[in-house]
Amino acid sequence: MPNNLDHFYAVIPAGGVGSRLWPLSRADRPKFLRDIAGTGTTLLRSTWERLAPLTGDERIYVVTGAAHGEEVQHQLPELLQHNVILETEGRDSSAAVGLAAAIIERRHPGAVIGSFAADHLISADTRFRRAVVEAVRAANEGLIVTIGIQPIEPSTAFGYIRAGEPLEILGAPSARQVDAFIEKPKAATARRYLTSGEYLWNAGMFIARASRLLAELEENAPELAAGIHEIAEAWDSPARDEVVARVWPTLDKIAIDYTVAEPAAKKGGLAVIPGFFGWDDVGDFAAVSRVHEGVSNCDEGVSAIGSPERVIAYESSGLVISETERVIAIAGLQDVVVIDTEDALLVTTRKNAQQVKQLVGLIKESDHPEVL
């Protein structure tokens, strides 16, 4: 990789309460701490290994919940304690990434930061890193940059980015103006986007000078920005705990898309680098099934993870993930999803996988919230 990235710092927001992949993912062990893809490596560890060649170990920061700090350090022994930002409670990505940017800017003025989720699945790491290098070069020009994923299907599960005119940036030949962000579309609209070739999936990756990102935050969410600056100013001082306890819970919960990316796009200050690599946010069990598609290790078309020898299927297809010694028998069901753990069993279908989050809400109000 090029050696002109000495001022580049990676930020890994590692949050979540495990609602969309319950019961495989739980509040005390969300999906980024799990080996969701069956590769033998957790999503968090894979994210680290993807970024380290660009930054070295010393320029990666992780923002995570206090409850996950110990396990994060266990999975990432190279992570410097100085670079761990523990949240007392989740306040969404504007607060998480904003605080990391403010801390890094105070420690390393002029730094470029990149935010990369801890729980996404990416293949073709070399192509990913090439896209990041281009993004850093575009960020050096004062732009906020995102990496958009070249869509391979008309998905309704992701937001979209409409890419505009090419930008003439030295070292970033594929950079294009961002014309607009679009929320998750309906199927017909998604098909039109795919056919046009003008749209990319929004993967939530943002690269910018820390000072530029903070300036955008100050303009669009001034109270949130003021709180972030107050915490960052105290972060490397004895006052940290008192200031965090007082200020952090008051910060607005809002995604960085709304406080930074979309406002910057409206002003012509956002660029996109198309990413030609495999990407999935593994956001529900339909996505997990997609990851394991074609790996049918039962007599029927069922992908069984964990204990395939204990899964018996007849005229069925789908995904089974087992963490128990039970025999699981399936007959006459298509695209079924079965998640079997010691204290909870989930049965759904790929089509209805998005409903798991609502199901978790019902469990939270039931007599058995302990399984969350």
UniProtKB/TrEMBL annotation:
Q: Which CDD domains match?
A: GDP-M1P_Guanylyltransferase
Which InterPro entries has this protein been placed in?
Answer: GMPP_N, ManC/GMP-like_b-helix, Mannose-6P_isomerase_type2, NTP_transferase_dom, Nucleotide-diphossugar_trans
Q: Which residues form the signal peptide?
A: none
Looking at the record, the residues that make up the Nucleotidyl transferase domain are 10-293
Task: Specify the superkingdom.
Answer: Bacteria
- What is any Pfam family matched here? NTP_transferase
Q: Which residues form the MannoseP isomerase/GMP-like beta-helix domain?
A: 310-360
Protein name (Swiss-Prot/TrEMBL):
Sugar phosphate nucleotidyltransferase
Q: What species was this sequence derived from?
A: Gulosibacter sediminis
**What are the top taxonomic ranks of the organism?**
Bacteria, Bacillati, Actinomycetota, Actinomycetes, Micrococcales
